[in-house]
């Protein structure tokens, strides 16, 4: 085993971390459950960190992997990750409530004029 082998393995594991984070980002955009999303993230990080630690690869390599994963997770959260949006936005509910109040007031005005 020459001196370059641990570095090559470290780079391969870094690619696994980034690929698992990208997979998790895709799962975050789909309708996968949160368990599946976090399992994909965690699996890549756990495998990479254990292997890098066992190989004695520099801490900087692991730090780059963690930062790349964090960047991908941030991107996934900004572009649609997380729970699905409600079918009706809250401002629509407020508007409907205001419309209902106006209708109730109009009915009250008509009732008072009938009496």
From TrEMBL:
This is Uncharacterized protein. Residues 93-115 have a biased composition (Basic and acidic residues). Keywords: Membrane, Transmembrane, Transmembrane helix. It comes from Egibacter rhizosphaerae. Residues 78-115 are annotated as: Disordered. The chain crosses the membrane at residues 6-26, 38-56. It comes from the Bacteria.
